[in-house]
Design brief:
Length: about 130
């Protein structure tokens, strides 16, 4: 029998990506400035990121698609790396928006991002 904490971590993962996906649509003004200009249509990228998070959260809930959803989350997190690097390059401040100390960007990229990947990875066979 799997522990309640392990199971709770799984459902928290689903909620994390589900809420994150919804937030791309509710608060696009938060995400769009974090997307580097060289990636193209920022609004489209934000919409695709939100859809991806919602679809992958749903995929986690279906046992047959769970492993594929985990791999999708890993690929999505890799795709988000340019935004984390961009945040560091601009010094952690978006004009008229988010402003954080530069070290926060590094912590997100070097520590939090890999932990998010690990969090998804441990549920690939759940």
């Amino acid at each position: 029998m799997q522990s309640k904490i392990y199971k709770a971590g799984f459902y928290l993962l689903v909620v994390f990506y589900g809420v994150g996906g919804i937030n791309h649509f509710i608060n696009p003004e938060f995400y769009i400035p974090l997307i580097p200009d060289y990636l193209g249509d920022k609004s489209l990228i934000n919409t695709l990121a939100g859809l991806a998070e919602l679809i992958l959260a749903g995929g986690l809930l279906i046992r047959k698609t769970r492993k594929l959803a985990v791999y999708g989350i890993l690929l999505m997190l890799i795709a988000f790396i340019p935004s984390h690097v961009y945040f560091i390059q601009i010094g952690g401040c978006i004009p008229d928006g988010l402003c954080a100390p530069a070290w926060v960007g590094w912590v997100r990229l070097v520590i939090i991002h890999p932990l998010l990947m690990l969090w998804a990875w441990i549920y690939r066979d759940f």
